[in-house]
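Re-running the complex after MR caught last week's input typo. The corrected sequence lines follow. Everything else is unchanged.
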Amino acid sequence: MSSFLKRWPALAALGLVAAVWLALRLAPASPADAEAAATPPVELPVELPGFRADSWFLPDEDLLGFVQVPGGAFVMGSDAGVDPLAFDIERWSPTAAQGTVDVPTFYLGRYEVTVAQYAAFVRATGYRVADAGALTGRPNFPVASVSWTDALAYARWLGEMLAGSAATPAPLARLLGGGWRVTLPTEAEWEKAARGADTRIYPWGNEPRAERANYQGPGPTRVGAFECPECPYGLADMSGNVWEWTRSPYQPYPYDPTDDTQGLDAEALWVMRGGSFSDGPQNIRAGVRGGADPGARRPFIGFRVALSRP
Amino acid sequence: MAADRGPRSAKGPKGEARANARASTPTPTTPSRNVLYLPLALSAVIGALAFLPRVQANPRLTFSVWGAVAVLLAWLAVLYVRLKRTDEGRSFVAVLRKQHYIQACVQLSIYAYWGWYWRPVYEFAGLFLAQLAFAYAFDMLLSWSRHQNYTLGFGPFPIVFSTNLFIWFKDDWFYLQFLMLAVGFVGKEFVRWEREGKRVHIFNPSAFTLGLFSLVLIATGTTDLTWGPDIASTLTLAPYIYTYLFAVGLVCLYFFSITLLTGAAAAVLFGGSWVYAAVTGVPYFIDSEIPAAVFLGLHLLVTDPSTSPRTPPGKLLFGAMYGGGVLALYGLLSSSGVPTHYDKLLCVPLLNLSIRGIDALVARLRASPAWGSLRLEWAFGRPNPAYMGIWVVFFLSMAALGRADGRHTGDSLPFWEQACAEDRSNACERLLRLEATYCGDASAWACNELGVAYTEGRLTTADADLAAGYFSRACELRFQAACVNLLDPTRTSRAEPRLLDLRLLLREGGLNRMGDTEGEIYARACEHGWTFACSRVAVSL
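Corrected-run output:
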């Protein structure tokens, strides 16, 4: 051995290289890295009643769950004279309690985005799940613990999938081909979809009704679990279940559709709407405005997607 | 520097040879198996250190320390059984060598100064101790497994200190730190050659193991297992670190006659850096004239008398080759996207391998007629203090020109933005690299700038997914422009850095600016070339 080492020091050095190489290759990942690298088990159901497994678990409907909300004006904000639960931030201006906003036609998801839909996205893209709680719910429950940026990433991916799929229903494909984008609704779009053309306080009327929405409860329920024939446009869970991200920064009223991308020096919160299972009747009103950090991931915040004109 | 083994060690220059001659006079102890209590006690010390809160905080680190103890005890048991069977004993001889304890003192003073400004160094003290105990025990067992006698001195100190000045494995992989030390000692023991009629180790033990591990870390894509980049960058947290390294380095230069080596390396590095900047308009090293860790390396890593040339011309050539090697490796590593702090480590083993060639070349040159006609023998025959004088003048000149501790052009992001806009050499690539570093440090502004770069595809190849990732990170850090970019990918929005961003962007290699006032931050930003900050200085003061 020692004569070999005397004659072949370079080979001995190479042997050491190999040994160190092996040691490093066999080095197990640290717990922290392993946690970061681990993709949570993304389990997708074979079938999910009411949803299409061949279309990323979108609703089994003509437009895959996108519901048209016709363009036109609606009344935005809350009048504390009519709605005693209204917060100050919902007041339109010092001189007017509410204002009128004209919203062009858009499409909004009938349901909040589900765990199965989000899991399909994660599985397809390898998108990092920062909060494993996002995928622990049942497949037809709303996805939660997702940030504003996660929601936008899902919407972007879904838009690309729908635009590139031959199975996309023709009307939807035409819209996407015409430049419409899958994104989050603005808060005006959201409020119009929740309230309709009249000034109702809740999607079903002016009084809270426990059988119409999941609120003051122990946790989320499956999307569409609460029937609401009075709700505008047939949308489900616009009140309660989980708060829903919008693409509007949290700014004082009056709402200006053109200022959503202004004020770049600010560190704005982003508006979320609709309240959640853990809120009382005050927070599930159509006019209520919540604000959260774009990176916030909470078990009571989810989202639904919209299809908006460019 | 190396830990030599008494009578078998190579003799250095005159002074060193005298020191070794004096040191080799002590006689060994009577051979006995009782000497094995020494590594046993050291193993117990390591085991006791496993109970430190710093070690207990991480189960893997605790396991690593216990693992080291287990290896030593197993080896000890095997050796004991073997010696008992053959009824043999082992002995040691205490030899205190100047190059070991002086080097260790200098290194310790650097840890003390650096740790004052970067506390993880002090928090690492228990693990230094564990490594020292391991190094002694390992060296003893290795020696007694092969020889009768062990030379007990301060040899392991400079090996452990020198290794830790450049690479620490993170707690989860700390067992590799023990392995790295072990490889250093094994390399010293086994990888040897004939030089000047003596069988001596080829490689500087710490440089050998550092170079080897660097190579493998790079090749296996596991560079993030160590704190190497953090060590390299946090040296500059200590103010006037270059001046400090220069001052303590003079001690080594004086005692070990390595001024020509260090001076030549520094001259090539300063010179190469200056020429590059003059030709391209951008600095060669991003944030310094010579990185502080390289400056440290040319004083304490490459200067082992046992593994460097003996003659003054050889030292000059060796130092110049080290400087050139670092320059070349820095360029190579940065163009390969590999962390550049390995530049100072990788070339040392290769240089160690070249010293017989350097010695031969010097001998041939000395025999040539030109040598005499140029009076080179006279030039290289000056006493070391004469070279030290030149080195002092050289360094002070560099310092006076702001090339050492002064603020460096490359610290300024606006400089790189301007250089990129003017399409200067590699400027856009470096701008992106700097922004990636700052983005990793949670500067939302830098993440947004990267997102814009990957969206527009002007500075680099467009990549929408990468851009979205950077915008998301910036947005989650509440940088509004990035959120807007996520919403509308068809156009890009930018904004000036926020105060928090500036605190990160103005670190100049590692300074902590979190406690600076708003006015101080804007004033510094204005000096860096952020024009928007100049208008805010007066408002915030």
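None of the earlier attempt is carried over here. The longest strand of chain A covers residues 243-249. Chain A touches chain B at residues 2, 5-6, 9, 12-13, 16-17, 19-21, 23-25, 27, 30-33, 147-149, 152-153, 156, 183, 247, 249, 260-261, 263-268, 270, 293-295 (CB under 8 Å).
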